[in-house]
Amino acid sequence: MSMFDDPAETEAAEIEVDEEPRLKEGDEVWVQDGDGNRHPGTFVGMNEAAGWFGGGPSAYVVHPEGHQAEVVSMARITLRD
User: Which of 33-37, 51-55, 70-74 has the lowest average pLDDT?
Assistant: First the structure.
C-alpha cells in the first residue's frame, strides 16, 4: 500500500480542503510522485468532480515542461516556499 492509498491521508486532505482553501490559482507548488520525488508545478484550481467518482480531493496542476493540466491528489501537493 502506498501513502496515496492510505484512507487517513485522503481523509486529512479532505478535511483540509473543506476547511480553508490554502492554494489559489497561480500558486507555485511541489507535486510528489509515487517514488517520493518532488516536481515543480503551478496550481490551477480544484477538481470539483473528484468526489463523484469516490476519490479524495484533487486539483489541476500544470508542470513547467508540460502545456496541459494534470489532475493530482491534494495529498500530493504542497506549497513551495
Answer: 51-55
Cβ neighbours of residue 3 under 8 Å, at least 6 residues apart?
9, 75
**Residue type (1 letter), 61:** V
Nearest Cα residue to 60 out of 36, 39, 77: 77
Q: Which domains does the chain have, with CATH numbers?
A: 3-79 (2.30.30.140)
Radius of gyration in angstroms for the set of CA atoms belonging to the chain, rounded to a whole number: 12
Q: Who wins on pLDDT, 75 or 1? A: 75
- How long is the chain? 81
